[in-house]
Structures are given as structure tokens and as C-alpha cells.
């Protein structure tokens, strides 16, 4: 089986698929600036509604430099997903090296207000990754 640059993982009924694409038009290798777009699709495969509250990303570049990025929601939104529903978004990650990795977690809450963590599996920021479907899903 060939290695892929994306990740897909299910935690507590929430499937997270993540993949990235290098953006040469936004990058400047001479200035150690490599920009990647990444797309995340979250799908509720469980039986309880869940709402995203926050994100925590761990970004590593090829030199081992780590950046932790925390914040509320994703791209200014707090999607609430019933069984079978999904939500996709696209964001961007600049690196100082030509490749790296991202992984992390989302904090979701159930309808009763109880929070839970959903893993985002490690995926690769590499120039050779296949192109993403960058349009947003409806």
C-alpha cells in the first residue's frame, strides 16, 4: 500500500479527513516561505449531534520546529453536525521549510453540553502531494 499525504481518523463518532496542497504561487523558497492549503472534512458518523468549539493544531517543520495553534471554532465558524452530516473548510499554513506535518485535535460538545476531544491524524505538508479539490462543499 502506498503512503498517502492525507489522514483520516474517527474519534467518538466524528470522522476527520485532512489533506494539504503546496501553493507555489504563494510561496517564496528564497525567503524560506512555503505555503500550503489544507482541507478538513468532518463527518458525524455517530448517533448524537455534536458541535465544534475549538481547535488545537501542532505544526512541525522539517527542522523539528513546533508551533501550537489554538483558537475558537474553525474559519470563524462552529459547525453543528447531526448523524450523517459533514462540514468542510479550507485554511492555510506557512512553513519555513519545504515540508512538514500537521496534527492535533478539535474540542466538540454534545447536546447536553459535555465536551469531548476529537483527534486530527497527522498529515503531511509536502510539495509532491496530489492537488486538493479546493472548492468548498455545499
In short:
The chain is an all-beta fold. It is built from no helices and 9 strands. Helix content is 0%, strand content 57%.
List the helices and strands and how they pair.
Blueprint: E1 7-11, E2 14-22, E3 34-44, E4 50-61, E5 66-72, E6 80-81, E7 86-95, E8 100-110, E9 115-125
Antiparallel strand pairs: 1-2, 2-3, 3-7, 4-5, 4-6, 4-8, 8-9
Give an overview in words.
This protein is mostly beta strands and 138 residues long. The protein has one domain: Immunoglobulin-like, CATH 2.60.40. Helices cover 0% and strands 57% of the residues. It has no helices and nine strands. The strands form two sheets. Strands 4, 5, 6, 8 and 9 form a five-stranded antiparallel sheet that branches. A four-stranded antiparallel sheet has the order 1-2-3-7, with no helix packed on it. Strand 4 (50-61) and strand 5 form a beta hairpin. The chain starts with 6 loop residues before the first strand and ends in a 13-residue tail after the last strand. 21% of the residues are buried. The model has no long low-confidence stretch (mean pLDDT 93).
Total strands: the figure is 9
Strand content: over 45%
The portion of residues assigned to helices is: under 10%
**Which structural class should the secondary elements be placed in?**
mainly beta
Quick one: overall form?
Answer: elongated
Q: Quickly give the CATH architecture.
A: Sandwich
* End-to-end gap: 32 Å
Mean pLDDT across all amino acids: 93
CATH class: Mainly Beta
Query: In this structure, how is the largest beta sheet organized?
Result: 5 strands, antiparallel
Radius of gyration: 15 Å
Reported by name, the CATH topology is Immunoglobulin-like
How many domains make up the coordinates?
1
Spans of at least 5 consecutive residues whose pLDDT stays below 50 are: none
Tally of separate helices: 0
CATH superfamily: ApaG domain
Task: Give the SSE string.
Answer: EEEEEEEEE
